[in-house]
From TrEMBL:
CDD domains, per database record: REC
Organism from which the protein derives: Viridibacterium curvum
Pfam families: Response_reg
PANTHER family documented for this protein: RESPONSE REGULATORY DOMAIN-CONTAINING PROTEIN, STRESS RESPONSE REGULATOR PROTEIN 1
Key words of the record: Phosphoprotein
Domain Response regulatory: from-to ranges: 46-162
Lineage summary: Bacteria, Pseudomonadati, Pseudomonadota, Betaproteobacteria, Rhodocyclales
Residues bearing the modification 4-aspartylphosphate: D95
Superkingdom of origin organism: Bacteria
Name under which the protein is recorded: Response regulatory domain-containing protein
């Protein structure tokens, strides 16, 4: 049986043409993102962006600054870890593909460091292999954001992490066993 045969209208045997009828379906109207009230982290929230691309740093920084966030940037994992220890950001955006130490190693260091382990981390990547590795491994990040990203996606990822005081927090159970591994 062909797929189109499923949509055939029942006709008398002497009918010459096949007529097709598409069955009625329910129409789903998406919520207009501009009508939905977005919840931002409180003004002054400090965000560290660790990415070797100046373009990503600039674009993500501009998006976040528009909502009153304070932005710090690092172009490699080593510098990012040092900045995180000094600045104590409320949230970290971490690229996976970095020169030197890659993002997964940096994330493990963050989760094992008593000063940094409670900072929520959103990892980012535009590489398909890194995306597959993220979803197939036990990574202690709160979320994953694929590049390129939209303004709407950035704020949706942050909104998921906000507590009642609008401060980004780690999600319960997000890779919690990693802190104890050596």
């Amino acid at each position: 049986m062909r797929i189109l045969d499923l949509f055939k209208k029942k006709k008398p045997a002497n009918a010459e043409r096949n007529e097709y009828v598409v069955p009625q379906t329910e129409i789903i109207v998406p919520v207009n993102r501009r009508e939905r009230l977005r919840v931002n982290a409180r003004a002054g929230t400090q965000v560290l962006i660790i990415d070797d691309s100046a373009t990503v740093q600039g674009a993500l920084g501009k998006i976040l600054q528009s909502a009153g966030y304070i932005i710090h940037t690092a172009d490699n994992a080593e510098a990012g870890l040092e900045m995180a220890r000094g600045d104590k950001p409320n949230l970290i955006f971490l690229d996976i593909m970095l020169p030197g130490m890659h993002g997964f190693s940096a994330l493990r260091k963050i989760r094992r460091d008593a000063q940094l382990m409670d900072i929520p981390v959103i990892v980012m990547s535009g590489h398909e292999k890194a995306t597959e590795h993220f979803f197939s491994s036990q990574v202690a990040a709160e979320d994953f954001m694929k590049k390129p990203f939209s303004r709407q996606e950035v704020f949706a990822r942050i909104e998921r992490l906000l507590d009642q005081k609008r401060i980004p927090r780690r999600l319960p159970g997000a890779g919690r066993g990693l802190e104890m591994q050596s």
